[in-house]
């Protein structure tokens, strides 16, 4: 319900930032100048928020500034008071009575939005890996919030169900079926949600991490516009918070980038137990977007048809995330330069339900053990046989955790020793899941060329390391051979064909 017209305030702000564009939402008016942005709270009173008085809007602006300075301090400059001037007009931060207030922000280029960059093909794996690190670092600063994890999620499910019922965008039978699928998944995950809450994984996070609320500024993905009107809605499991951009990437037709974000976020946080929650969290986030779009469709107007189509597309994404996913283990081995990591990354999105398989790389695990960034080089001592044995054991342990959560896993390592190949196959046998091993190969000259051309790669392998591997090679291993001379795409096609033939 609109309780007050703010035409005077809007005109004043536009005049201050002339020339200016205005963007409106149901709760905010955003005035965009060349270098400055004013975000005005609309004078509305809704069931879930109250901006009906200048004092309430001022408090909301101050809270928004504090929340968003956690992730975007350079964007969020100040809260500015709109006051009555002596001549009867308006002023900023004057001595007169409070009329309104705004959050002042820095303007960033329109193509900085991650949603725009993804849609235009401008965003790549490196940018998404950087986002994973940013989100992991941000979440690490947040204090745990006590309470029940399952009760918080049940409240979101109730809001989604009510939203779909009110909009009518789904037929009653379809809405009931979707709700039943959520209920089944929730019943399975509820104990784990409570256990994670007890372990400190519930925190006051961003709350609305859509791709439209992430900007790439000076090469750094920067979350902004956190959910500020209800801290209880933004207080949730960290995995549910990160599930939003993962879902959004998948929904935007980039399952490859969704897989990168999911895997690199788990790498950065070490939160292997989150993997089983991510598909459900993605489904819930998709349903949130679906019922919001459904509400817009129900309002009618020129955009109703587009809103309805958007709502149904999000529902389809939610259903895909809720579909059963069978665990399986796939191992990709080969000498340095054979294309193992590229094949593993390419394979992961096609395995199981969104966000695909967990990729466990020996190179990344080794760097984590030594507490360095994936692209930092390690000394030769980090590759002693005893250290490598620890790396392979950690990879097997992590794979077992993934499989126990009902998710597929892809492990990526040299695997040039028969005992290592047998040990990883044993993980699948113990878990009672299918196993497939692939051995990637290329001529020695090609392997040397690939190693020489690497840049920013987690592998520390050199030509000398490869020569050592070649001298120890024991012939063709007992895994399915994949020739990578034709490039990564041809190798991936061959792997997928082999998996399809045995499934």
Describe this structure as you would to a colleague.
By secondary structure, the chain is α/β, with parallel strands linked by helices. The protein folds into 3 domains: 7-107; 114-322, Alpha-Beta Complex (Aminoglycoside 3'-phosphotransferase, Chain: A, domain 2); 329-502, Rossmann fold, CATH 3.40.50. Helices cover 50% and strands 16% of the residues. It has helices at residues 7-16, 54-68, 114-119, 125-140, 149-167, 172-198, 231-234, 238-251, 255-269, 278-298, 304-322, 340-347, 362-369, 385-404, 418-431, 444-453, 463-472, 488-502; strands at 21-24, 28-32, 36-41, 45-46, 49-50, 76-84, 90-92, 98-106, 202-204, 214-217, 220-223, 235-237, 329-334, 358-361, 409-412, 435-441, 480-483. α5 (149-167) runs parallel beside α10 and α8 runs antiparallel to α9. The protein starts with 6 loop residues before the first helix and ends with a helix.
Record the SSE blueprint.
Blueprint: H1 7-16, E1 21-24, E2 28-32, E3 36-41, E4 45-46, E5 49-50, H2 54-68, E6 76-84, E7 90-92, E8 98-106, H3 114-119, H4 125-140, H5 149-167, H6 172-198, E9 202-204, E10 214-217, E11 220-223, H7 231-234, E12 235-237, H8 238-251, H9 255-269, H10 278-298, H11 304-322, E13 329-334, H12 340-347, E14 358-361, H13 362-369, H14 385-404, E15 409-412, H15 418-431, E16 435-441, H16 444-453, H17 463-472, E17 480-483, H18 488-502
């Amino acid at each position: 319900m609109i309780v007050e017209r703010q035409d005077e305030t809007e005109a004043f702000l536009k005049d201050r930032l002339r020339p200016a564009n205005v963007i409106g939402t149901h709760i905010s008016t955003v005035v965009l100048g060349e270098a400055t942005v004013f975000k005005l709270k609309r004078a509305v009173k809704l069931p879930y928020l109250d901006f009906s008085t200048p004092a309430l809007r001022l408090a909301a602006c101050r809270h928004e500034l504090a929340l968003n300075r956690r992730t975007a301090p350079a964007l969020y400059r100040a809260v500015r008071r709109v006051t009555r001037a002596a001549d009867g007009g308006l002023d900023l931060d004057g001595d007169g009575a409070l009329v309104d207030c705004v959050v002042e922000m820095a303007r960033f280029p329109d193509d900085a939005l991650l949603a725009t960059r993804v849609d235009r093909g401008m965003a790549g794996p490196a940018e998404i890996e950087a986002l994973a690190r940013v989100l992991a670092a941000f979440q690490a600063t947040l204090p745990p919030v006590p309470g029940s994890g399952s009760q918080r999620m049940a409240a979101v499910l109730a809001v989604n169900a009510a939203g779909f019922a009110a909009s009518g965008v789904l037929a009653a039978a379809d809405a009931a079926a979707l709700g039943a699928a959520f209920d089944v998944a929730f019943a399975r995950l509820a104990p784990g949600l409570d256990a994670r809450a007890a372990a400190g994984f519930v925190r006051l996070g961003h709350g609305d991490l859509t791709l439209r609320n992430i900007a790439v500024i000076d090469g750094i993905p920067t979350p902004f516009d956190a959910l500020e009107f209800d801290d209880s809605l933004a207080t949730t499991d960290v995995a549910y918070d990160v599930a939003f951009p993962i879902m959004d990437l998948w929904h935007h037709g980039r399952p490859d980038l969704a897989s990168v974000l999911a895997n690199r976020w788990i790498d950065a946080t070490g939160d292997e137990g989150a993997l089983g929650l991510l598909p459900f969290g993605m489904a819930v986030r998709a349903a949130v977007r679906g019922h919001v779009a459904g509400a817009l469709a129900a309002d009618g107007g020129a955009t109703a048809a587009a809103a309805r189509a958007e709502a149904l597309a999000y529902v389809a994404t939610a259903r895909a995330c809720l579909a059963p996913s069978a665990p399986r283990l796939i191992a990709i081995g080969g000498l340095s330069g054979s294309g193992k990591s590229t094949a593993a990354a390419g394979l992961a999105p096609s395995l199981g339900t969104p966000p695909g398989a967990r990729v466990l790389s020996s190179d990344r695990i080794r760097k984590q053990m030594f507490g360095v960034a994936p692209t930092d080089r390690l000394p030769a001592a980090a590759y002693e046989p005893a250290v490598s044995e620890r790396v392979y054991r950690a990879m097997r342990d992590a794979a077992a955790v993934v499989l126990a959560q009902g998710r597929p896993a892809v492990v990526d390592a040299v695997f040039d020793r028969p005992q290592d190949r047998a040990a990883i196959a044993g993980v699948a046998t113990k878990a009672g899941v299918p196993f497939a091993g692939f051995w990637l190969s290329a001529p020695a000259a090609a392997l040397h060329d690939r190693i020489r051309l690497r840049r920013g790669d987690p592998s520390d392998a050199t030509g000398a390391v490869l020569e050592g591997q070649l001298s120890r090679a024991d012939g063709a291993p007992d895994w399915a051979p994949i020739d990578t001379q034709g490039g990564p795409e041809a190798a991936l096609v061959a792997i997928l064909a082999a998996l399809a033939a045995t499934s």
